[in-house]
Amino acid sequence: MVKTIIIVELFIYLFIYFLGQTSFKVVVKSLSPKELVRIHVSKPLDRNDGTFLIRYRMYETAQEGLKIEVLYGNEHVAQSPYILKGPVYHEYCECPEEDPWAWQKTLSCPTSEPQIEKDFASFPSINLEQMLNEVPKRFGDERGAVVHYTILSNHIYRRSLGKYTDFKMFSDEMLLSLARKVVLPDLEFYINLGDWPLEHRKVNETPGPIPIISWCGSLDSRDVILPTYDITHSTLEAMRGVTNDLLSVQGNTGPSWINKTEKAFFRGRDSREERLQLVQMSKENPQLLDAGITGYFFFQEKEKELGKAKLMGFFDFFKYKYQVNVDGTVAAYRYPYLMLGDSLVLKQDSPYYEHFYAALQPWKHYVPIKRNLSDLLEKVKWAKENDQEAKKIAKEGQLAARDLLQPHRLYCYYYRVLQKYAERQSSKPEIHDGMELVSQPDDSTSICQCNRKKPLREEL
Ligand SMILES: *[C@@H]1O[C@H](CO)[C@@H](O)[C@H](O)[C@H]1NC(C)=O
Ligand SMILES: *[C@@H]1O[C@H](CO)[C@@H](O)[C@H](O)[C@H]1NC(C)=O
Predict the structure, then answer these.
(1) CATH value at residue 396
(2) Do 137 and 153 have their domain in common?
């Protein structure tokens, strides 16, 4: 059987084909025998379909480059060793590429992201003065969750406009990570860290909508969306090699299709009424659906009647063949993880969406269910009776999600949003009263020798 290994570090993906079982070894080292570079290679994640994910993390710069050996016994397989020409930098090395197009090309960023095009279609030009006047008044009250950012000469400044802005740690960490890799355009923007999108003005209204940046979009709002804090953080964590992220889930998809329990599955909090309905349906149709609420907050009075289910590790979800995705307060942020498993996803129709939904189609990548769940049981029966078709949709969905949710795609997406925004600004971004500099983390454990020109000098 032909096997594929995908090696992930930061943005570098390598596809290696080789023959054999799992008894292979991957060695990552400096290309120069004289240079000793500390590199940690983690255990392969077996994706159960003949492909494996390997992650490695560097603690120093490999000046000449990296050599990646894939060995079966002591034999090199396929085109091993693979050479990555250097210098290769580690995650915390502050060494931004000055040419954004060269950087995007290295990452193989897609030439177009339909969601970004669509989001910016409402905003041919961005008036920063108008934003400065309006945003604090409209969205900056006590209960607000908006943070005002300015990026100048690749330095990041911000001030909070509301009280509920703790999640700025997620936007901070991503912006800092990007700024270490590529020089960001000068820009001034507002990120909404709350659940719901904010801008509900229509394009043809006066005054018109303004481009607030949010994690989640909805059909009746105009916010420009970024990948959610959840997948952003997950991606950055994945590169630190933790578990329970978008990569780990790919190596923990449970039993193979034929050995999965033929029921639809759901566990989650009570954040939306349909979730309670699910539990009721499950009680009446235990042969088709296993649904439980694991925590009550919004509908505490229902706990007695519906009961509380035990918490379950996410990887165990994939013991079941069908996964029900029902919105929480907004889009359910588990959806990307469910799509990466090898179960069939039954997705509730929803006005809410994340940055990658536009690329997924009903009946090709998932099975749609009505918002009020009236056809859920019927769809589960359909899946049970059409196993081959169901399996095919599950696989297509998984493949699409693997592609869309790769770490480098996330970086591409962020950069493209910032770039589109910057192009539309009609005046120069400024640092405002109350803004503070968000510094790069102190990196004392890793050594960074940047061979690029020094980052731009402070222009202030
Ligand atoms: C299904 O489970 C059985 C029993 O555990 C096991 O022997 C078999 O190999 C599994 N089939 C597949 C395709 O994984
Ligand atoms: C569920 O929604 C559909 C429209 O999507 C509607 O036709 C149907 O009557 C609703 N069913 C119930 C039980 O409310």
Answers:
(1) 3.40.50.2000
(2) yes
Whether residues 402 and 422 share a domain: the answer is: no
Ligand 1 pocket mutation, candidates 256, 262, 318, 391, criterion most atoms within 8 A of CB: 256
Is pTM beyond 0.90? Reply is yes
Looking up tokens 């025998």 gives 33
Strands (E), 65-113: 65-72, 75-76, 82-85
pLDDT band of residue 283 (cuts 50, 70, 90) is very high
Q: What is the pLDDT of residue 450?
A: 86
Determine, yes or no, domain membership for 458: no
- Same-domain status, 185 and 302: no
Q: How far apart are CA 133 and CA 150, in angstroms?
A: 15
User: Domain check: are 220 and 81 in the same one?
Assistant: no
Calculate how far, in angstroms, residue 278's C-alpha sits from the geometric centre of ligand 2: 15
Q: Which of 323, 382, 420 is closest to 100 using CA atoms?
A: 420
Domain membership of residue 168 (yes or no) is yes
pLDDT for residue 172 is more than 70: yes
pLDDT of residue 77 exceeding 90, the answer is no
Nearest CA to ligand 2 atom 7: 374
How crowded is residue 33: how many other Cβ atoms within 10 Å of its Cβ?
9
Domain hosting 24: range is: 8-93
Helices (H) and strands (E) in the chain, counts: 11, 22
Residue pLDDT, tens place only, 245-266: 888 899 999 999 999 999 999 9
Ligand at minimal distance from the CA of 259 is 1
